[in-house]
Design a protein that fits this description.
Elements: H1 2-26, E1 31-36, H2 42-58, E2 61-66, H3 71-83, E3 88-91, H4 100-108, E4 113-116, E5 130-133, H5 136-150, E6 158-164, H6 170-183, E7 189-196, H7 201-215, E8 221-224, H8 227-239, E9 249-254, H9 257-264, E10 270-273, H10 279-290, E11 298-300, E12 305-307, H11 311-314
Parallel strand pairs: 1-2, 1-3, 3-4, 4-5, 5-11, 6-7, 6-8, 8-9, 9-10
Antiparallel strand pairs: 10-12
The structure holds beta-D-fucofuranose (GYE).
Length: 320
């Protein structure tokens, strides 16, 4: 009885194996070439982690290349993915322009390209299958709207300094544009100075030091295109003997854990959310593209805004 049952179970298992094995062997593992910008910010580190872990989870073979914030390295990486005949190429373009030639090469090699996080500006949208990521214009507007509301009873001039992201990058261009679009409705808002801090803490601090050197007394607001630059700038503000978030109102973007910590210490007023957790939706799209299924041309990440008053309550829920 016992042994009969075992044989029956073994028999059934063998049958299942016989049926499923050829299918499993028939499905080739998907290879994805991913060119990351670098490791310039807390956001980027979380994004890399999300892509790597989602690939593992999805059983996708990931070829990962770090461009160290240089476009030429990204172009090289994409060319090498083409040479290796990967199934899909995904990348986060460091700047908006200058990728057309290499994208045409990928198209000629019939390798689909997915843009993640940042967009390229091209008239030929057949050069990529989809662009997934945040609406940077809207993020800039959210930052602007928060400031307009915060200053609604303020009659005098509001002098703003701006730390821009990487020159020519989609988030730097759009976050500037969206913010300006909102604040220009009231002439009391003035952007005193605006310069790039390349999305890094070190540069954010350095540029803020320069801003403070010439205009310390005039600056009412700092608008930083990401949290890392704001955190660098906070150090510069403290070293100049001023109180961040009090003497100078600080607005930034990303809402990474570092920003929540700064808000809980009362040093940052608000951070607009920009989610780096794009890995799972990227792997989903990769599978769909390989299976020949249609994917939407634009996949927008949903996100909110967090003022310092809610930071302590929200912090335990944050995933990056
Ligand atoms: O805001 C910044 C990072 O492209 C949205 O890049 C991303 C930006 C992010 O370095 O922290």
């Amino acid at each position: 009885m016992q042994s009969n049952r075992r044989t029956a179970i073994q028999g059934a298992a063998a049958l299942t194996l016989a049926v499923t094995m050829p299918l499993a062997f028939g499905q080739k593992k998907i290879t994805l070439g991913f060119s990351q910008i670098g490791a310039e910010s807390e956001w980027r580190t979380a994004n890399t982690e999300s892509v790597k872990s989602a690939a593992k989870e999805a059983g996708i073979d990931l070829k990962f290349a770090d461009a160290q914030q240089k476009q030429e390295n990204q172009i090289k990486a994409i060319r090498s993915f083409i040479a290796q005949k990967v199934d899909v190429i995904a990348f986060s373009p460091v700047v908006e322009t200058g990728f057309e030639t290499v994208l045409k090469e990928a198209k000629a090699a019939k390798i689909p390209v997915i843009l993640t996080d940042r967009a390229v500006s091209t008239k030929d949208d057949s050069l990529y299958v989809t662009f997934m990521g945040s609406d940077f214009l809207e993020e800039g507007r959210k930052a602007g709207r928060w400031l307009v509301e915060k200053m609604k009873d303020n009659k005098g001039e509001v002098n703003i300094v701006e730390l821009q992201g990487t020159v020519g990058s989609a988030p730097a261009i759009d976050r500037k544009k969206g913010f300006e679009e909102v604040i220009k409705a009231d002439p009391k808002f003035k952007i005193l100075r605006s310069q790039t801090g390349d999305f890094t803490r070190a540069k954010g601090k350095e540029v803020m030091q320069a801003f403070l050197k010439s205009d310390a007394k005039k600056i009412n607001v700092l608008y930083a295109h990401n949290d890392d630059m704001a955190i660098g700038a906070i150090q510069a503000i403290e070293e100049a003997g001023l109180k961040p978030a009090k003497d100078i109102i600080i607005i930034s973007i990303d809402a990474v854990k570092g920003a929540f910590e700064a808000m809980m210490q009362g040093k940052l007023n608000v951070s607009v959310e920009c989610s780096p957790l794009l890995g799972p939706q990227l792997m989903k799209a990769v599978k769909e593209v390989v299976a020949g299924k249609p994917v939407p041309k634009r996949i927008v990440t949903e996100e909110g805004i967090f003022p310092m008053e809610v930071a302590a309550k929200e912090f335990p829920k944050r995933k990056y």
